[in-house]
Amino acid sequence: MRLVLTWFINAAALFAVPYLMHSVDVTNIGAALIAALVLGLVNTLIRPLLLLLTLPVTVLSLGLFIFIVNGFMFWMVAQFVDGFSVDSFWAAVGGALLYSVISWALSALLLKDADD
């Protein structure tokens, strides 16, 4: 149940990004749900491999290259999902950053920890 709630939180965060950043577009909630699912799968399956391959650059940039990797993942998903588009790569980097902040804030507000 927690996984489904996290999926809905991520879809809501993705649906909120175009209201704050006009270079990202999500046409409807269905597209946001599909894009959130694909983003979750890509971040689970492909991102660790990319982080491992780019480890030397990430270390040299003191971890800032991870923003580039996250933006690439965001941009790549926008290329494959209908109804979700990003104008440019740098817009994808900003959109990924904004998406992660909104998702984190919503998760902190709506999901309770096991400690509570």
TrEMBL record:
Keywords: Membrane, Transmembrane, Transmembrane helix. The keyword Transmembrane helix applies. The keyword Transmembrane applies. The chain crosses the membrane at residues 26-46, 53-77, 89-111. PANTHER family: SLR0284 PROTEIN (PTHR37309). This is Membrane protein.
